[in-house]
Amino acid sequence: MRRNRQSFTRFSLEKRQKFIIVSVLSSFLFLLIQITGFEKRFLAICFLTVLMPLFAIWSLKEALSGIKWLTALILPTLWTAGVGLFYFLLPAVWFSQVPIVAVYALGIYALLLTENVFSVAAIRTIQLYRAAQAVGFLLTLLTSFLLFDTAFSFRLWPWFNSLLIFLISFPLFIQGLWSVTLEEKLSRQTFSLCLVSSLVLAEIALIISFWPISIAMASLLLTTATYVLLGLSQAHLQERLFRQTINEYVSVGAFVLLIMLLTTRWGG
Fold first, then answer.
1. Is 66 left (phi over 0), alpha (psi -120 to 50) or beta?
2. Could you give the CA distance from residue 44 to residue 129 in angstroms, rounded to a whole number?
3. What angle (nearest 5°) sits at the alpha carbon of residue 48, between those of residues 43 and 52?
4. Could you read off the pLDDT of 138-189 as tens digits, one per residue?
5. In this predicted model, what pLDDT tens digit does every residue of 217-257 receive, in sequence order?
6. Residues 197, 229: contact at Cβ < 8 Å?
7. What pTM was computed for the model?
């Protein structure tokens, strides 16, 4: 028994060391992106985003199986893309960029720990599961905001905005809902909830593309809609969709919508 406990502790330490290595290495590559010429910086961010799934597989491979080969890679990859593209929009000033790199490093480390907990919890009960759910939910919302803000910054046509928001939100909903069910395979119910939620966000994006609101406010509204849809869907899968739960989520969405209506300049 003592030998098994020691081997498990050593295994956990080795994983944490891998998580630290990935966090430090990816953050260092972020700093190198700033040195890259402006015209090549976007390609450099795309390259780092493609590398992140490989880093995640290397650090999590012992716990990966079935659908976890997909779900465990979604948030680290999209977090890298979201922070990287937001980083790309910042002015070339070190005091504004170093904190972003620090937040990115902490986020990657937290996400790798979270995905590791999800992978283990799919096999056996683990005490850190609820904490991992909270961290995953928070970083999903933050990733959503960064990616939505970047998408609207491109100033595309409304239909392109709608399509882009759908492509961004669909994998985020897959990861967010799977973290509740921890299924070996994605069920039809989970897939349907992801599809419907993503379509709703795409429709909201299409509508607000015609509204005279700022990019930040549009991103905030979509992130709030993600919060409401993801929260209600998770509660539904957990069979905890009570009236009080619905009122809490809907009230938050209504409050942000009211703020958006009050800050909209309809007169041009």
1. left
2. 35
3. 150
4. 999 999 999 999 999 888 899 999 999 999 999 999 999 999 988 888 889 9
5. 999 999 999 999 999 999 999 888 888 988 999 999 899 88
6. yes
7. 0.89
Other CB atoms closer than 10 Å to residue 147's CB: what's the count? 26
Instruction: Considering only CA atoms, give the Rg of the chain.
Output: 19
Rounded to whole angstroms, the Cα distance separating 118 from 31 reads 30
String of DSSP letters for 167-212: HHHHHHHHHHHHHHH--SS--HHHHHHHHHHHHHHHHHHHHHTTS-
As a whole number of angstroms, the distance between CA 51 and CA 26 comes to 9
Question: And the tokens for 109?
Answer: 């480390």
